[in-house]
Amino acid sequence: MFILTQFLIVISQEITWTNYSFAFPQFIPLIADKTVFSRTFEEFGQILNISIEYNGDFQESICNFEYQSIVFRQQPQTLIALVSDMQQIDIDNLKTEEIEQGFSEELISYAIIDRDVILLEKNGVVHHLYYNWGPKFTNYTIHQLSIIQDGNENQQILAGNDSYYYVDNNQFIKFIIKNGSLEQNKILNWKKVNDHFKLFVREEHFYLINGIHGIKVYKVQNNILLQVNSFVIEDFQRDFNDVNLNLVDYAVEDDWLYLLDLENGVYRINLISMNIDRKFFIAQKGCKVISIRNKQIILIQQNQLFSVIYEGRIIDDGWMLIRMRTTAKQIIRNTYQFNSYALLISNPINNMYQKGLIDKFTDSQLTKGENIYQMELLGVQEMDKTYAIGIYKYGVAIYFAYEIPAKIICQGKLSQQNRVTIRLNSTNCLNKNQSDFLNYCQNRLDYVFDIHGVLMSPHQEDLYIYLCIVAFSIVVGLFLAIFFIIRRYQMKKEKIDQLRKSRRSLSY
Ligand SMILES: *[C@@H]1O[C@H](CO)[C@@H](O)[C@H](O)[C@H]1NC(C)=O
Ligand SMILES: *[C@@H]1O[C@H](CO)[C@@H](O)[C@H](O)[C@H]1NC(C)=O
Ligand SMILES: *[C@@H]1O[C@H](CO)[C@@H](O)[C@H](O)[C@H]1NC(C)=O
Ligand SMILES: *[C@@H]1O[C@H](CO)[C@@H](O)[C@H](O)[C@H]1NC(C)=O
């Protein structure tokens, strides 16, 4: 069971509110049962809570409100499994044991660049697919990297600008896939890396993030690795107390490399100047996963029996914690952030929840998020506005992933005038102080619905249509009659003219 326990609100006292309301009530004429008023609430960001009040001739609930939501659905027939005899079977329909028997190999790393998807199996098999509009995968090819198989650890693939890279603790290989075949080159000078590490490439620099050993920055020239920079534990120390450092994960946004230190918290390095930002620090111990998107940061602490998810916003020198959730009996292995939603990846139940909502002010139906049963998901990546790719231990699938704004639909059944007051608390509004992250909005929107009954009953309407048809037929008939009379007159006139002409020609 996926149980979410909401914890204390750490920052509730920091929240400030902006008031927003219409200058005048909006006047909306409607025809009962016929016309509908509807609007979306994009400019209000995420709606936290809403109340609708009616003040009219009847206590009729004429408006129907729906909160923002996300559709995240696997496209039928897009799941591609790697083992051929199981290719036609949806992984969801199998039991874990069946999958374990059927899929002896599994994917351990993936890289997506533009629309090229590459997937790595432990034994060096590389799968290459092209994500095509449609949406579908095309040009699927499978290749074998020649790697030294000797207790390889931390096997990863990376995508550079014009080539891919394979790396593990013992070897570093550059490869390209051209005309359906794989060409590989060994990168020399890669020294055996001890302990856990992660490597990523950005603008031809390779960043090795290596637990207690700090960071090394490399360049590759003529297939030789050259170290251009390094940061050791002492470089990050803020005082003599934090002697331990263990960099376990990273995130990159806006030229900043955020480094997650299991022992202390989050540091950052400017990727342009290559300097550690001395002022910046997030004190949050014990986290293993970091994710940042649009300054929204998620840190995940994994424990044996539960995980803790911290959601905050990066501000000048640190963060503001917005929410803290715990998941019972579950290890959240990874997370992927959409604009307003985050997917917490766990096996087999993943949770999609809304970001930016503060429990204390939020309708409880929104705070739990929605569970998505999906086995062995490694990660997700958006490809465009409507589709994302999900990578599993055993294959890939395409998801329809679409964020829907909150919306209201109003329609009256009875003839009346009804003043509807909508109060909503939201993360955004038109006059919000945008430089204050924790400035939320209390909005009041007034609509006056002037609802008139329909002019005719359905029976009258039918009769009316019938009469219209009759009247129309009469008009057409008259028109045709006049046309024929004129035509006949013209023909007669032509005949007389011709007779006259021929008589004249005879007389000559
Ligand atoms: C909005 O938030 C304010 C302040 O917490 C609260 O008093 C009010 O009831 C909320 N309104 C709605 C519609 O939730
Ligand atoms: C996919 O394969 C087709 C046919 O071999 C080829 O014409 C096309 O260029 C390929 N597309 C990509 C993106 O590689
Ligand atoms: C949401 O709004 C309703 C109606 O104003 C109110 O009764 C409720 O307490 C609010 N809930 C939260 C969590 O603010
Ligand atoms: C907007 O918020 C910032 C940061 O909290 C604050 O310094 C500033 O005074 C605010 N501006 C207005 C107009 O309230």
Fold and architecture overview:
By secondary structure, the protein is mainly beta. Among the domains are: 102 residues, Immunoglobulin-like, CATH 2.60.40; 51 residues. The strands form nine sheets. The chain has a five-stranded antiparallel beta sheet, with no helix packed on it. Strands 2, 3, 5, 38 and 39 form a five-stranded mixed beta sheet that branches. Strands 7, 8, 34, 35 and 36 form a five-stranded antiparallel beta sheet that branches. A hairpin with a 3-residue loop joins β22 and β23. The longest helix has 50 residues. The protein is extended and about 115 Å long. It starts with a strand and ends with a helix. It binds 2-acetamido-2-deoxy-beta-D-glucopyranose (4 copies). The site of one 2-acetamido-2-deoxy-beta-D-glucopyranose (NAG) has 3 residues, from β12. Keywords: Membrane, Transmembrane, Transmembrane helix. It comes from Paramecium sonneborni. This is Transmembrane protein.
Beta percentage is: over 45%
Query: Per CATH, which architecture of the domain at 4-63 and 411-452?
Result: Sandwich
Q: Approximately how much helix is present in the residues?
A: 10-25%
Bound molecules: 2-acetamido-2-deoxy-beta-D-glucopyranose
- Output mean pLDDT: 88
Distance between the termini: 114 Å
Report the C-alpha radius of gyration, rounded: 34 Å
Kindly identify the CATH topology of the domain at 4-63 and 411-452: Immunoglobulin-like
Shape: extended
Number of strands: 39
- Number of continuous helical runs: 4
Low-confidence stretches: 1-10, 83-87
